[in-house]
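Course exercise 7: structure representation. Students receive a sequence record and must write out the corresponding structure in token form. The form below is the worked example handed out in class, using DUF4364 domain-containing protein (186 residues). Read each field label carefully; the graders check that inputs and outputs are placed in the correct fields and that the protein name is recorded exactly as given.

STUDENT ID: A-19
EXERCISE PROTEIN: DUF4364 domain-containing protein
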Amino acid sequence: MYDKTRALAENKLIILYLIEKIEIPLSNSEICQFALEKNLMDYFSVQQYLSELVESNLLEMTTENNSTRYTITIDGEDILNYFIKHISNYAKTVINTYAKENSKRIRAEYSVTANYFQEMNNEYTVKCGVYDSDGMTSLMEISINVATKDQARLVCRNWKNNVADIYGQIMHCLSTEVKGDAPSDN
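STUDENT ANSWER:
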């Protein structure tokens, strides 16, 4: 019984440690993928632990751009710092290595988003965004209505593949004064 309780506590601490080390909010799927790939926990346990960590205010759950992300709270950091010695050296090493190897990739994935949704009239709305390196501060968001699902997919793919050019062109167009136009006070 004691070993089971200890393992449960360590697994929750592992999740807190992972989120703290990555330093940006992580999605449910990223947390699960990490735990499963590293054979630290099974899917159902991760779901249970995430729920319990949110309920006990050690993690904060936010939903943005159709993605649920988890952030460690101040209470979560306090608990982690107090009980960090209960995380095995193996788990810490695995997490530290994962954070070092994947932090940039995860930040990049959060910095560019493109999703589409079917509307009542069978058209699609595509929402594209570019975010600061924290993954939360919006630099630009665009909503576009298109007629078909194929168009929506194409817009999403083109946005993700060409975001630097698109963002640059839009910023140039919006921030360059057109000859003959007097600046307005708006």
